[in-house]
Amino acid sequence: MPELPEVETITSNLKRGTAGAPSLIGQTILGAHILWQKTLAEPDPETFQAILQGQTIQNIGRRAKYITINLTESILVIHLRMSGDLRVEPTQSPLNKHDRLTLDFDSGWRLSFNDTRKFGRVWLVRDTQNLFSSLGPEPDDPALTPERFHEMLKTRSRAIKPLLLDQHFLAGLGNIYTDESLFRANLHPLRSSDTLTLQDAAKLLESIRATLALGIQNNGASIDWVYRGGDFQNHFQVYQQTGSPCPTCGQPIQKTTVAQRGTHFCPHCQPLKGA
Predict the structure, then answer these.
(1) CA 192 distance to own-chain centroid
(2) 179 CB-contact burial (10 Å; exposed 0-12 / middle 13-18 / buried 19+)
(3) Which residues are the active-site residues?
(4) CATH number of the domain where residue 16 is located
(5) Which end of the chain is less crowded, N or C, counting CB atoms within 10 A of the terminal residue's CB?
(6) Which one of 66, 101, 132 terminates a domain?
(7) pTM score of the predicted model
(8) Tens of pLDDT along 186-216?
């Protein structure tokens, strides 16, 4: 599943344009085609098509792992889930096998939402308040101070890795960036959140921000067929490094399962405390 850096990269490419495709800012929608009806979460297809027609893209942003496309009167929200991808291509280009929804623009370009596993969803709403109301803060939110983060951790009594994966607690992290952040912070993935000191919390928050920044700098990670074009996989310290020497101490990186997720860590640099 694309995580925050991958979604941020996709968002930036849609906003700025790429060498092969223009920016979507200022594009006016001629029409929409729903090729897999369940992709559309809200509203119904007829209303969706009627509302979209003639609207112009004003801005494109990201909240957690959602892509937000601000239109003249509405907001188009896309969640890529496990296998979603977005392409900007000429309208006359042939559709791909797993395209689920397309938008045609008056400029002769098209936005295609491709999703092999059919888990991705699209919403068209007036505002995002209800849709995003349960999301936790963004990791780079200036209001998320070490003190506030420590209070958030103390009020839970959960293993730190599944807590960080919980989008209601903190928005945007997934398996890759959680493993890498915990390694930077020298925290075992099963460490109970309420045992972290203020110093631990500060180091973890700093590690999360540094890991995500490096991921964004490298356009995310390309580790399978779902997302291509990133380079962060060449900077992994523990993720998918099972058996390789730890870059800090040289001990073999281990893999275990935490909350049904494959989890990579160094048992020497990340000892389990306060379980």
Answers:
(1) 25
(2) buried
(3) 2-3, 65, 261
(4) 3.20.190.10
(5) C
(6) 132
(7) 0.93
(8) 999 999 999 999 999 999 999 999 999 999 9
